[in-house]
Design goal:
With 136 residues, the protein is α/β, with parallel strands linked by helices. The protein has one domain: CBS-domain. The protein has six helices and seven strands. The strands form two sheets. It has a four-stranded mixed beta sheet. Strands 2-3-4 form a three-stranded mixed beta sheet. 26% of the residues are buried.
């Protein structure tokens, strides 16, 4: 039984829009942005709009065990790597990439030929894929 259509694209399943913070943000600012926007991950961007890193709610929780965690920087908190995917990639390929890289979400980047090239336009989480499995 095939649960995800082979031709279903990331852009059909992803959460559109990305909550961002400047890379100069501290842990409290990041956590507040997550809470205010009801998201579990946020993208830190450089002044030119390029993606610098991804911070998840789990990354924040891990940092909270440290003394003075509130002043921790993006670099102190973020995951080591940012895994990205093209919106026209298949959901099947995205699921395989998540499994191979052992990540729970991928940042969906704009196509290089469209408008502001290679900017974050959405997030595809494992939860998004699983929800899609049971859509009628």
């Amino acid at each position: 039984m095939e649960l995800i259509a082979e031709n279903m694209q990331v852009k059909d399943v992803m959460t559109r829009g990305v909550v961002t913070v400047p890379m100069e943000s501290n842990a409290v600012e990041i956590a507040k942005a997550m809470a205010d926007n009801s998201v579990s991950a946020i993208v830190a961007i450089e002044d030119n709009g390029e993606t610098f890193g991804v911070i998840s709610d789990v990354d924040i929780l891990r940092k909270m065990k440290d003394k003075n965690w509130e002043i921790a920087s993006v670099e102190d908190i973020m995951s080591d790597s940012v895994e990205t995917i093209n919106p026209s990639a298949t959901v099947h390929d995205a699921a395989e990439l998540m499994a191979a890289k052992k990540v729970h979400r991928l940042i969906v980047m704009s196509e290089e030929t469209v408008g502001a090239s290679y900017r974050p336009i959405g997030i595809l989480s494992a939860r998004d894929i699983i929800k899609q499995l049971f859509q009628k």
